[in-house]
Amino acid sequence: MDQITALAQIKGIRDGLLATFVEAPWDEQRQALLAQIDEKPAFFQGARLALDIGSQILKVNDLVDLRDLLSERNVSLWAVISESVVTEQTAQLLGLATRISKPRPEERKQAPEVNEETALFVNKTLRSGTRIEFPGNVVVVGDVNPGAEIIADGNVIVWGRVRGMIHAGCKGNRSATICALDLSATQLRIADEVSAVLRPQKDPKPEIASINKEGRLQAELWQTG
């Protein structure tokens, strides 16, 4: 990683992605952030981004300019966390959040574990040719169309229809799961286990795919309660 991109660090959080910065002039921090996004454009497509900029003082033009540059890259700026009162007020004037909430314990019991520090949330349908790779859990609110791919170290949860390819536990995590409202994927993989092509269902129900005691990948009804 070069000196410029090292100025910005991006990680998954409950509500999307969080960028934090090493102390430097704002122009350099902004350049570092955009450089990382431009390096992996497919990964950041449709992402929701929050910034933690410490004591950096930003005015309206600074945030409007960044928001526009991110929007051109199909990235949505939704929150700015700052120790500066000026920056916080500026963010609020633009309708941006200035706090990042954490899920209540009871919210975490409704689905397979999604660690708030390692989850990527994608709020859109993934179309053919889209490929998402993430070193944690992935949650998609939308469909995964034929030709789209999701590859995750952890679990994959799709609040929609799956017709593409999903690989959960890609680094050998055999306890990973794949959940969807309609699980008719081109291919499902968990660790090194691969499913056959799943046919579309006439009356689809939410399902969860996992590796059973016999070591085979299977899908069963997803009980969220």
Using brief descriptors, characterize the structure shown.
225 residues, alpha/beta, Transcription Regulator spoIIAA, Pectate Lyase C-like, five-stranded mixed sheet, 4 helices, 15 strands, 18% helix, 32% strand, elongated
How would you describe this protein?
This protein is an alpha/beta fold and 225 residues long. The protein folds into two domains: 5-93, Cell-division inhibitor MinC, N-terminal domain (Transcription Regulator spoIIAA); 105-221, Pectate Lyase C-like (3 Solenoid), CATH 2.160.20.70. 18% of the residues lie in helices and 32% in strands. It is built from four helices and 15 strands. The chain has a six-stranded mixed beta sheet, with no helix packed on it. Strands 6-8-10-12-13 form a five-stranded mixed beta sheet. β12 (187-190) and β13 form a beta hairpin.
Describe the protein's topology:
Elements: E1 8-13, E2 16-21, H1 26-39, H2 41-44, E3 48-52, H3 60-72, E4 76-81, H4 85-93, E5 119-122, E6 131-134, E7 137-140, E8 149-152, E9 156-162, E10 165-168, E11 178-183, E12 187-190, E13 193-194, E14 207-211, E15 217-221
Parallel strand pairs: 2-3, 3-4, 5-7, 6-8, 7-9, 8-10, 9-11, 10-12
Antiparallel strand pairs: 1-2, 11-14, 12-13, 14-15
Strand content: 25-35%
Q: Which term fits the overall shape?
A: elongated
How many domains is the backbone divided into?
2
- Alpha-carbon distance between the two ends: 44 Å
